[in-house]
Amino acid sequence: MKAGNENGPENQIDVVAVDDDVSIAIECKSAANPKRSSTLQAEIEHLSSARVRFFRAIERSLPAEPKRMGAQAMFLWGVLPQQRDLETAKNCSVMLFDIDDIEYYEKLTEHIGPAAKYIFLSDIMAGRKIRALEISVPALQAKMGKLLYYTFAISPEYLLKIASVAHRAGGRPHIPHPSRFLLG
After folding, report:
1. What CA–CA distances, in Å, run from 155 to 152, 162, 164?
2. Domain boundaries in the chain?
3. Rounded to two decimals, what is the model's pTM?
């Protein structure tokens, strides 16, 4: 999105990702040597403040029904957030990713290809309901021993969108602990 565009956000957005169901604004911050940033909290708040304008610009440019869900994230390379930065990110619903996350998604993409997108989306949209993915399908209920199970037909493409398996132990926490940002 071009800075200063009256229909778009007032700040630069490094990465814009849009598909049929979601739109994501990503800001990237880096430092040559690992260090804490005295401005990170303000940068998180600034990204969050552009939320409404960014998502309206996406709706105008690429309309979808139902409307896409939106997310914001920051990828940090060598920038070490302080506890207040993590709290601000959580309060502003801005996901923080570090070098370990970047390497994880790169390796995951090598192993499972384009399906890695859905693992990333399940991490960035964790705990949020995506209206565009809500459907009802007929199912048969059966019992095996004492357990109930259901059988239903669904397309593999849709199943990829709604079902994810945590590939990392314990899944991905919403906001990483500051120690995850220490490099080397």
Report:
1. 10, 11, 15
2. 15-134
3. 0.72
Average pLDDT, consecutive stretches of 10 residues, N- to C-terminus, the chain (184 residues)? 51 88 92 90 93 92 88 93 94 92 90 86 79 80 94 84 62 46 40
Say how many CA atoms lie within 13 Å of 162 toward its Cβ.
14
Burial class (CB in 10 A: 0-12, 13-18, 19+), 70: buried
Pairing of strands 147-152, 139-144: antiparallel
Fold of the domain built from segment(s) 15-134: Trna Endonuclease; Chain: A, domain 1 (3.40.1350)
Q: Rounded CA gap, 122 and 71, in Å?
A: 11
Spell out the alpha helix ranges (H) of the chain: 40-49, 51-61, 83-91, 99-112, 116-124, 156-162
